[in-house]
């Protein structure tokens, strides 16, 4: 049931991929559309919490700057009560700004940084006041100290005034520029009181040029409904008189009525600016409501389409999953029941009859897959039959070739033995000895082919053979037998029927040790009695193997796999595993303390006999005389 649900879930998951994309797209469209509306509404919130308190604070700081300049111009005997009262109003405006700005300070990273910059400048206000009170600051330094704080406030206006509605943003930016022009006017107002120095006139001239440029540039881009009030101010007689006074101050004069004239204009500009800001705030409300309505309609329509698509997809997915589940059941039946039965019968040599695979389906593709499974089943059976016939054929070839080679080698060894008895020259005898050793190795390779074919080599002894003779016989069947050292062993004996296979098994391990170790090193063969039989140790002084290779080879030795004709490089390992499995012998590889590899052959106790109490006549050696093997 669980695996059936897995198929259904995969089909549903496949169908839900486009639906999930639709949901994501719906969410993005809704978020973007609604986000525009919410941003317009946030514009009102930012006006209430940031811009309006900032305007109030800026007005109070402008008045404090003017009062500070008036105090510096009046001298030490001046009345400080007006400045103290104005500072109190500025402090209240500052606290109100900090309280309100804290509500919207974290709206965005940019706004937070700008608010923090304003906080930093406001913290310098006490230092500016201290310099004024101690007489360390002149009028120019005082004006510039307040200017820095007010510049930070107007940077905040420009940052908060950004809105994702181009007409409103453009008008809001222009209104902020006009507000900054009013700030420049109040700076002129403070510098123009009384007699001015050269440095003050230089700064005053720059302020006049910047203010006039801002006003002329901004009025041309302002909406007609907002421009009317601004135009009425700059065309008034008061404004024209103020321009003439500016020219007089630039020329070094001190016009009368400067403070009253600029104060009147500053108030007019402030009222016009606040009125324009309120109008822009009101304009954002219907735009926000229209955007929200559009977002709701679009989101509702998309959501309805998604629900219809989900219902249709689930219905089609459920139908398709049922058909696939039926196909899956039929395929599992073929894989788990039919094919194993067919293979088992083929191994027994029985004939097989494979029924066709049929899957009921209304889907053309699934029906085609069912037919394909039926074809695959038939092809797999034919392949299994062919593989079984191939294995039998290869086995027969191996067996026939090996038997023929065995017969020829047997005849050759008989002739060599006769020649050894007749030879008198030591050199000829040594050559015959080497030929005899070569024939012995060829006999072992022929037996390897017989083992691969699944048959028994047939070489054995009727009586038990001492373990030492078994080890010597194995050493005599390898090419580098001069490097093999057979240590003395206990007198236990090996049962005659298994002597040939054990000699072959140990010889394969010894030859492997000589091949994979340096030529100047020795291969040690030791034997000892174990708790459950007898153990041979074949130790080389080579480079050894990695842990992964040891694990792989031990796994193959413990569970012999099917012989692969393409894996001829591991032929000896396969022969060892086959011989060990035939007699329940355990073969293990492990690291040697000398850096090489040690092969351990554990012969079960059923194949091992104790030595006789009384000495017997020596039995025939299992192989030719081992006069070249060291260690005795």
From TrEMBL:
Residues 500-607 form the Histidine kinase/HSP90-like ATPase domain. The keyword Transmembrane helix applies. It comes from Nonomuraea ferruginea. SMART domains: HATPase_c (SM00387). The chain crosses the membrane at residues 12-34. The lineage of its organism: Bacteria, Bacillati, Actinomycetota, Actinomycetes, Streptosporangiales. SUPFAM superfamilies: ATPase domain of HSP90 chaperone/DNA topoisomerase II/histidine kinase. It comes from the Bacteria. InterPro entries: HATPase_C_sf, HATPase_dom, Nitrate/nitrite_sensing, TCS_sensor_his_kinase. This is histidine kinase.
């Amino acid at each position: 049931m669980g695996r059936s649900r897995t198929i259904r879930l995969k089909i549903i998951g496949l169908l839900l991929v486009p639906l999930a994309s639709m949901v994501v797209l719906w969410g993005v469209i809704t978020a973007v559309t609604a986000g525009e509306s919410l941003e317009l509404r946030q514009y009102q919130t930012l006006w209430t919490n940031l811009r309006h308190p900032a305007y109030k604070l800026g007005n109070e700081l402008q008045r404090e700057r003017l009062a500070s300049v008036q105090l510096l111009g009046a001298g030490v005997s001046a009345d400080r009560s007006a400045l103290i009262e104005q500072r109190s109003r500025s402090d209240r405006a500052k606290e109100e700004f900090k309280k309100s700005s804290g509500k919207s300070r974290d709206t965005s990273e940019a706004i937070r940084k700008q608010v923090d910059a304003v906080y930093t400048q406001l913290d310098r206000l006490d230092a500016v006041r201290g310099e004024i009170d101690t007489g360390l600051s002149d009028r120019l330094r005082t004006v510039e100290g307040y200017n820095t704080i007010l510049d930070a406030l107007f940077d905040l206006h420009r940052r908060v005034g950004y809105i994702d509605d181009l007409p409103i943003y453009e008008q809001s930016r222009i209104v902020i520029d006009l507000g900054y022009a009013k700030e420049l006017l109040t700076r002129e107002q403070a510098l123009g009181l009384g007699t001015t120095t050269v440095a003050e006139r230089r700064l005053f001239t720059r302020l006049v040029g910047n203010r006039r440029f801002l006003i002329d540039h901004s009025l041309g881009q302002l909406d007609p409904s907002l421009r009317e009030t601004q135009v009425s101010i700059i065309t008034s007689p008061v404004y024209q008189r103020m321009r003439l006074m500016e020219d007089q101050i630039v020329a070094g004069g001190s016009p009368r009525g400067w403070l009253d004239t600029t104060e009147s204009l500053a108030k007019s500009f402030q009222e016009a600016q606040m009125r324009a800001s309120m109008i822009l705030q009101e304009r954002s409300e219907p735009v926000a409501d229209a955007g929200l309505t559009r977002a709701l309609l679009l989101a509702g329509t998309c959501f309805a389409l998604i629900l219809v698509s989900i219902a249709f997809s689930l219905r089609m997915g459920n139908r398709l999953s049922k058909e696939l589940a039926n196909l899956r059941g039929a395929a599992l039946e073929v894989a788990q029941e039919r094919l194993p039965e067919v293979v088992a019968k083929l191994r027994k040599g029985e004939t097989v009859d494979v029924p066709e695979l049929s899957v009921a389906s209304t889907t053309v593709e699934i029906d085609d897959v069912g037919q394909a499974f039926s074809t695959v089943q038939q092809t797999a059976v034919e392949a299994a039959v062919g593989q079984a016939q191939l294995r039998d054929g290869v086995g027969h070839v191996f067996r026939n070739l090996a038997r023929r080679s065995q017969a020829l080698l047997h005849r050759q060894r008989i002739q060599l033995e006769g020649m050894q008895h007749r030879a008198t020259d030591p050199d000829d005898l040594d050559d015959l000895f080497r030929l005899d050793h070569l024939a012995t190795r060829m006999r072992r390779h022929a037996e390897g082919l017989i083992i691969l074919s699944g048959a028994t080599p047939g070489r054995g002894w009727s009586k038990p053979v001492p373990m030492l003779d078994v080890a010597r016989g194995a050493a005599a069947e390898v090419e580098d037998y001069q490097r093999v050292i057979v240590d003395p062993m206990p007198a236990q004996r090996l049962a005659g029927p298994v002597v040939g296979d054990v000699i072959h098994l140990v010889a394969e391990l010894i030859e492997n040790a000589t091949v994979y170790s340096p030529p100047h090193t020795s291969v040690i063969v030791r034997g000892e009695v174990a708790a459950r039989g007898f153990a041979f140790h074949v130790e080389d002084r080579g480079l050894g193997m990695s842990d992964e290779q040891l694990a792989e080879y031990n796994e193959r030795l413990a569970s012999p796999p099917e012989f692969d004709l393409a894996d001829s490089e591991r032929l000896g390992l396969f022969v060892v595993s086959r011989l060990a499995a035939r007699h329940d012998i355990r073969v293990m590889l492990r690291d040697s303390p000398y850096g090489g590899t040690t092969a351990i052959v554990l012969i079960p106790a059923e194949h091992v006999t104790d030595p006789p109490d009384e000495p017997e006549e020596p039995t025939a050696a299992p192989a030719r005389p081992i006069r070249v093997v060291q260690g005795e």
